[in-house]
């Protein structure tokens, strides 16, 4: 039975609630914490993590649940806990601090700072006791206390210097215009890091980087560079065969600890599922390889089963640990398998899933022969899944985040359109409607987090740009102009509250948010693409969807602002460069006119969805144009009517249109 309860007990964050019974007297990030720090003249210990973080759990067990460590914190510091997924703005700033001070970063993130939030010491995981050259808290905390009490001037100097360094990193002067040469420079850099044996980029640990694969598909399409497509296919196939993919229950784990994609870090994140659905669907469109479509469908099967809430939104993540052991839920030993299967079935399972004779094994497949859908194997997989379901499941982080849900509803809408699956589109519509009902406090505004009936935290750049992305995809899959109208309204809010006029681009936080040490303009495409990278893609498509060409001027300004950063490390900005690819063109506006329920109209959609054409928008011109909710489109589309009441398509390239056609074969020729 828990003996103590601290202030975190009143929070909604699953991560903060995990620490609500620590003997450490945690505060959440709020004014009271920093007022107490000033009043008591104590440094602040800031601990940032998230509920499915393995090393966060380790540090909690070793130190935050330890009475000796808790007593030191409570008597000498003001301890503050932050969920990085609830407050990515705080996390991003202090992660940059950690990288500046130590050369690396990660979670849990541990920061010691002054009562005015200026950092003077940074680390990630800190053990209780010193070991292997790593200072433990029992040795470190007395040193920090001594420094604070007896060498305050030096501490303040370090804090001021770190704050100045952080602010110096802000984008101040736009660079030169980007040009087409950046594409080949990016491709060459990716080719240099490419692992031709196992796919993917770099060495262990190896992360799935969907936006790099999507950039390579753009590059292949623009220049017909066959090796770019080969790199994509090798990576998609190797990841699908590896232990990074949950072969029994589906869905992708966070990353591979080895270069072979075999041994994963077992947590599963909503955003990874969404972004990898996009990559596999694009791969399917580009190649026609059904394996990629099946993989996207398998990911969606996992997401529906484990991450879909009863209200229609999607939960955030599943933990790597169960029963305190990383990966325990996912591992198999032969003794357990023999208990449930006949000798012949056991041998087939061992052979197909390449299990080891001794110890715990991670199911994975032969990347050369990826036939995973024959009836016998599928029957065995389902039985393995049923056995696994009886185990203790990993913790599920059941908060619903607007930005990650935006990515998922975009992936579902795109998949439903390409795979002709109405269920996926309905799931996307339900998620969009959930966000607009629960996380839209006023017209055009968004909140960041929903959990347990409570919506809170003003939306950041990612919330707006990712949700706009989802709404655009949903419009193109339903032709319901309500979603496009909403996308335009949220985009107007983004421009009003996040735009940096002096250095064109979007701040991560609204001008209405609390002032932190730095107001960042993020551009790096890491595990998740940056909000600016998605925003430029949205703006270009909104320009083409509505005929508001002036929006492209905003995109052009953004490319100048970030050009120097991108040129210095192009492969770190692949999502932004996919947007720049669209800006340079050619870009296609495909206007389908007529009754969308007619057979001829549907045939046009079949042709369109079976062709990979990355830089395009699909626009529906209804028979009665006054039915549209998007006022900007009525004047634009009024002259694009159906011919003789038959489904008609207009193929426009860079705002210049070909003669319309009612013939699907002619349409196929035009888009090729």
Describe what this molecule looks like in 3D.
With 672 residues, the protein is α+β, with helices and mostly antiparallel strands. It folds into four domains: 162 residues, Glutaredoxin; 328 residues, Glycosyltransferase (Alpha/alpha barrel), CATH 1.50.10.10; 73 residues, no CATH class; 84 residues, Glutaredoxin (3-Layer(aba) Sandwich). The chain is built from 25 helices and 19 strands. The strands form six sheets. A five-stranded mixed sheet has the order 1-3-2-4-5, with helices on both faces. Strands 17-16-18-19 form a four-stranded mixed sheet, sandwiched between helices. A three-stranded antiparallel sheet has the order 8-9-12. It is globular.
Summarize the structure.
The chain is α+β, with helices and mostly antiparallel strands and 672 residues long. Helices cover 50% and strands 10% of the residues. The chain has four domains: 7-168, Glutaredoxin; 181-320 and 397-584, Glycosyltransferase (Alpha/alpha barrel); 321-393, no CATH class; 588-671, Glutaredoxin (3-Layer(aba) Sandwich), CATH 3.40.30.
């Amino acid at each position: 039975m828990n003996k103590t309860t601290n202030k975190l007990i009143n929070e909604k964050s699953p991560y903060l609630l995990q620490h609500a019974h620590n003997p450490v007297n945690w505060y959440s990030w709020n004014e009271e914490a920093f007022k107490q720090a000033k009043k008591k003249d104590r440094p602040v210990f800031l601990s940032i993590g998230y509920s499915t973080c393995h090393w966060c759990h380790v540090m909690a067990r070793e130190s935050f649940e330890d009475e000796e460590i808790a007593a030191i914190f409570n008597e000498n510091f003001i301890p503050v806990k932050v969920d990085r997924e609830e407050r990515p703005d705080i996390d991003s700033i202090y992660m940059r601090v950690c990288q500046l001070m130590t050369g690396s970063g990660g979670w849990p993130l541990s920061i010691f700072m002054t009562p005015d939030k200026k950092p003077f010491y940074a680390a990630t995981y800190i053990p209780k006791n010193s070991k292997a050259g790593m200072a433990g808290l029992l040795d470190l905390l007395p040193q920090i206390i001594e420094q604070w009490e007896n060498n305050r001037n030096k501490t303040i100097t370090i804090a001021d210097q770190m704050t100045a360094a952080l602010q110096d990193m802000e984008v101040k002067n736009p660079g030169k215009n980007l040009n087409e040469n950046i594409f080949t420079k990016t491709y060459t850099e990716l080719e240099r890091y490419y692992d031709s044996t196992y796919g993917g980029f770099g060495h262990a640990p190896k992360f799935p980087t969907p936006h790099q694969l999507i950039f390579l598909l753009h590059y292949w399409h623009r220049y017909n560079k066959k090796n770019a497509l080969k790199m994509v296919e090798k990576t998609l196939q190797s990841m699908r065969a590896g232990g990074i993919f949950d072969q029994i229950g589906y869905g992708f784990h966070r990353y591979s600890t080895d270069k072979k994609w075999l041994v994963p870090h077992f947590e599963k994140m909503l955003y990874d599922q969404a972004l990898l659905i996009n990559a596999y669907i694009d791969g399917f469109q580009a190649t026609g390889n059904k394996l990629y479509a099946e993989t996207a469908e398998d990911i969606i099967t996992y997401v529906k089963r484990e991450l879909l809430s009863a209200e229609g939104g999607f939960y955030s993540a599943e933990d790597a640990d169960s029963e305190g052991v990383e990966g325990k839920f996912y591992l198999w030993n032969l003794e357990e398998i023999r208990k449930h299967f006949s000798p012949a079935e056991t041998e087939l399972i061992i052979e197909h899933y390449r299990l080891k004779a001794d110890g715990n094994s991670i199911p994975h497949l032969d990347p050369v022969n990826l036939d995973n859908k024959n009836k016998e194997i599928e029957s065995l997989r389902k039985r393995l899944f049923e056995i696994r379901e009886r185990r203790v499941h990993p913790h599920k982080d059941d908060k619903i985040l607007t930005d990650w849900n935006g990515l998922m509803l975009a992936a579902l809408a795109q998949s439903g359109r390409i795979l002709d699956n109405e269920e996926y589109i309905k799931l996307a519509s339900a998620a969009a409607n959930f966000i607009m009902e629960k996380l839209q406090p006023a017209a055009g505004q968004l909140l960041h987090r929903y959990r347990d009936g409570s919506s809170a935290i003003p939306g950041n750049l990612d919330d707006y740009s990712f949700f706009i992305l989802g709404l655009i995809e949903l419009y193109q899959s339903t032709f319901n102009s309500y979603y496009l109208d909403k996308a335009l309204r949220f985009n107007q809010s983004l421009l009003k509250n996040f735009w940096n006029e002096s250095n064109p681009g979007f701040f991560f936080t609204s001008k209405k948010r609390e002032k932190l040490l730095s107001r960042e303009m993020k551009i790096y495409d890491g595990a998740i693409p940056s909000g600016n990278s998605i925003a430029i893609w949205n703006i270009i498509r909104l320009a083409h969807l509505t005929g508001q060409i002036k929006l492209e001027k905003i995109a052009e300004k953004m490319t100048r602002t970030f050009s120097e950063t991108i040129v210095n490390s192009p492969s770190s900005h692949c999502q932004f460069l996919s947007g720049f690819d669209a800006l340079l063109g050619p870009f296609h506006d495909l206007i389908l006119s007529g009754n969308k329920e007619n057979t001829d109209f549907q045939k046009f959609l079949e042709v369109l969805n079976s062709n990979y054409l990355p830089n395009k928008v699909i626009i529906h011109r209804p028979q009665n144009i006054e039915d549209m909710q998007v006022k900007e489109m009525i004047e634009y589309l009024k002259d694009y009517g159906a011919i003789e009441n038959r489904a008609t398509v207009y193929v426009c390239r860079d705002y210049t249109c070909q003669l319309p056609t009612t013939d699907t074969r002619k349409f196929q020729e035009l888009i090729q």
